[in-house]
Specification:
133 residues; alpha+beta
Length: 133
């Protein structure tokens, strides 16, 4: 799972980012892309702006498909998108963008849960791969 964080305010409040780093990141429009592998949340990359955040997540999903999921048949692969969007229209735009990058794969959308959403704040978006049962 890869998560783009739109505002550093909530990471700062939770103690995951220092106030200085949050201020500098906001001024320079540097946003983190986090990853969840198993049950661990870690920093994955830093990007400048939403467009590059979307591209980084899509690039990472593409790499995972060819490396980590190379031995899984495409009919058993699903891509989930998620977010803390302010409207369902914004959520559908993100889901559709990912779907367009991975034709033939099933792409669904879920709201980010409270446990993650409280740390990343509004405007965050994510994507991840899972194996269908």
């Amino acid at each position: 799972i890869y998560i783009y964080v739109d505002t550093l305010e909530f990471l700062k409040r939770g103690g995951r980012v220092t106030p200085t780093a949050a201020a500098l990141g906001s001024v320079l429009n540097i946003k983190p892309v986090l990853t969840i592998q198993g049950d661990k949340l870690d920093a994955f990359a830093k990007v400048r702006g939403t467009k590059k955040g979307r591209a980084k997540i899509i690039e990472s999903i593409r790499k995972d498909l060819t490396v980590r999921f190379a031995d899984v048949a495409s009919e058993n692969i699903r891509i989930a998108t998620a977010g803390t969007f302010r409207s369902s229209e914004e959520a559908e735009v993100w889901r559709k963008e990912v779907e367009d990058c991975f034709p033939g794969l099933d792409v669904v959308y879920f709201d980010l849960g409270c446990s993650v959403g409280t740390h990343v704040g509004p405007g965050a978006f994510a994507a991840g791969i899972y194996r269908a049962l």
